[in-house]
Amino acid sequence: MLLVIKSLHGLLQSSSMAVLDDVRTTADHLSFAVPAEHEADYLALLSATDIAAQAVLSQPDYQPVPELSAYPRTDVHRPDPEANRYRAWAWKVSIDGKRGGVLDGKTVCLKDTICVADVPQLFGSNAISRGFRPISDATVVTRVLDQGGLIVGKAMCENFSHGPCSHSTPFGPVENPYAAGFSAGGSSSGCGALIGSGEVDMGIGGDQGGSIRIPAAHCGLVGLKPSFGLVPYTGVLSSEPTVDAIGPMARTALDAARLLEAIAGSDAIDDRQLGAPSRSEVMPYAQSVLDSRKVGIQGLRIGVLKEGFASSHLHSGVNQRCRAAIHHLAEMGAIVEDVSVPL
């Protein structure tokens, strides 16, 4: 849209006759004619558009202003190795949210792709030798704090947030909290390790091709890549705008639902959010989880993806545990069926 505005603005810098020549040429290219008696109307419409274009182009770029007085940042530091046993912290910080809200008192870590004003950002890399310190908060940062969350730090991610394992940062591999020397998954590896170990209650990861779901699976968590655009990506380092997503990671479905409820909804900035609900229209996800406990899973249809068990790399122990869980769900009354989604 901005390119169109700039083009129209440039077009109308020339004389009216030159503009009319362009109108005629464009109309001819599109196989229709502009009657001579309508040419003045076209000029008037284009002139009005140019006035609007100049007004837009004269405005400074919008830069969200962080609420530093309401939410001051204290104790910003890189933790010592002994305080970073899984190498999962990128930076520590203390930011207290409001009292009350769906996240009241919950400690939260953020994948180090999510901007927090005045807190350095590594992006899983040491390529930027002078460092990068954001000047704005991502929308989800403010929402977490508004809902009572306590932000306690930035969680390490894989190098430039790419990679399904947890070995690509220049600061050493992120350890699985359940098995030293094993992968925590990626690229939201730090979130997986910190939440899985119990150091924090919940976190916001990022996911383009599995980067929430893989570490959640590795570290025994509930990890959700939300529907595209449900959670605003404003203030988060992008990998690919058509698949960028951030979402909750937690040890329970209820905590994941609480966090999703806190951060979902349009912010009127992120253009990925076409059709997203307003904040006031966000579903009560946490209550939905609580309500589901009353009815159980009797009759719930669950699909078991055949392709998920077809890999030659599938560990027999993982296969057995998954099959046992599936069998338990069926015993509880769920309707379990194999499904196939071939690639």
UniProtKB/TrEMBL annotation:
Molecular functions (GO terms): catalytic activity
Stored InterPro entries: Amidase, Amidase_CS, Amidase_dom, AS_sf
UniProt-listed SUPFAM superfamilies: Amidase signature (AS) enzymes
Coiled-coil segments: none
Domain Amidase span(s) in chain numbering: 78-342
Family stated for the protein in its record: Belongs to the amidase family.
Name listed for the protein in its UniProt record: Amidase domain-containing protein
